[in-house]
Known about the structure:
This protein is α/β, with parallel strands linked by helices. The chain is 44% helix and 15% strand.
Amino acid sequence: MRTDYQHLLIQQDGGxxxxxxxxxxxxxxxxxxxxxELAEALEATAQDDSVRCIVLTGAGRAFGAGxxxxxxxxxxxxxxxxxxxxxxxxxxxxxILFAIRTTPKPVIAAVRGVAAGASCNLALSCDMRIAAxxxxxxxxxxxxxxxxxxxxxxxxxxxxxxxKAMELAMLADEVSGPEAERIGLVNKxxxxxxxxxxxxxxxQRLANGPTRTYGLIKELMYKSLDSDLQTPLRLEGExxxxxxxxxxxxxxxxxxxxxxxxxxxxx
Length: 267
Ligand code: LHQ
């Protein structure tokens, strides 16, 4: 894995790769450099067998404040030489979302402090979320007259249901960590003092799991979410054909029969 990024910190501890968005002076608001670097780093995880779980977090007191609002005034140039349309700019975010979706490893967003705008929706696009009790999730877009972007309109109603998603998108009120856990926006909320250890314990547990099977579970779940009943029923058979041939499946069965914990290797 490349580690020399300008706006990211990369740290690997065993099978857990932590990617930290690192612009704390602006609450990790997205620069174009950070967007490109984040996409690259996430894409690289798919090729690196030593990475078995990814934690995405922010440096300092925040997860992220969305698009750097100062960049709204800076004229960008498109590949064709003309002014860059917002829809073209958003493709930088879309590349990140696809990287999260397609890497066959679990990706956890670890949210401490504020997660606003596109940063909030980045957290929602991860496979799972852990929040500190000081977390503040804000669909900040409507506060400045914008519609949710960065995948929010897709992820938000799927996580919390359509009615709540409408409320959060239109009123743009803050959702605290405990409230986020209650409405299903995050998997769990922990006291700030335990945030780092709880995140690592969660990530290590996933990193010690049957990694290839986790990749199949991701593919199966996401394809099922967007299809009719027939398609996931066919896919579950296809994926199970692959999972049943893995070394981790053999190990899981052997461990069960021998009444001992399984030692998964990700193969
Ligand atoms: C910031 C930012 C920031 C720069 C805090 N930028 N500096 C839309 C359209 C088109 C293209 C692509 O993408 C998008 C997607 C989007 O994400 S749109 C939404 C953009 N984000 C926002 O509108 C959020 C703006 N920020 C805030 O509302 C507040 O800062 C929040 C609620 C996030 C945090 O409030 P506080 O905890 O009170 O912190 P603060 O406001 O004091 O901020 C601390 C510093 O960070 C401050 O700088 P300073 O020099 O005064 O210490 C802020 O200016 C800076 N900062 N967000 N997005």
